[in-house]
Amino acid sequence: MIAAEPTKSLLLYLQTDPRIMGSIGWIGLIITVVGLWIAIDQIVKTKTAAQAAAIAIKKLENSIFSRERLLELTIAAAHIGNAKEHIAQRNFGSAVILIDVALPLCTQVQALLSSRDKQRVQKVVLRLKKLTEIISVTGEAQVEAVAVTATTEARNIVVEMNEIAAVLRYKYPEEGQT
Q1: 113-119-123 Cα angle (round to 5)
Q2: Which of 68, 66, 77 lies closest to 170 in space, CA to CA?
Q3: Three-class DSSP labels, 37-92
């Protein structure tokens, strides 16, 4: 038990010496401040990473919507192309059905576009409605004249839709745009 006596007295001395206790207090304070700084730094890094992830998700979402718009516009253009062939064959009923299938697709695309592209698709929608009116009210005497005019208009609409699709295909979001 004699060996334990010097250890006890050393511990008692360390616990009661004001300089040693002051040093231990300062070391504890420094470790606490460093730990707090590391914790705050990690929180900031986590916040920055979360913001970067949110931006990446938004970009992916925009990319998916863009591809969806492109697909719908391409499908609508194909329907109008088929309608043009039916018009050329003087099969106006089938052409109207194909145009009626393409119209909702164009309207859906229009709802997801920016203002400039939206106006272009709106003009296409109006031209499609006018084309439907032209071929719906055709009498027997007017079939040839209407067929030529309607075929030309359908071809022009398909060209316009393909131009819009080409712009959408290669459109990149501007800096700062989400």
Answers
A1: 125
A2: 66
A3: HHHHHHHHHHHHHHHHHHHHHHHHHHHHHHHHHHHHHHHHHHHHHHHHHHHHCCCH
Whether 109 and 69 have beta carbons less than 8 Å apart is answered as yes
**Confidence (pLDDT) at 31:** 93
Sort residue 176 into left (φ over 0), alpha (ψ -120 to 50) or beta: left
Q: Structural domains in the chain?
A: 65-169 (1.20.120)
Look up residue 118 and give its amino acid: K
81 pLDDT above the threshold of 50? yes
State pLDDT tens for residues 124-171.
888 888 888 888 876 666 777 788 888 888 889 889 888 888 887 776
Tell me the whole-structure pTM to 2 decimals. Answer: 0.61
Count CA within 13 A, CB hemisphere, residue 21: 8
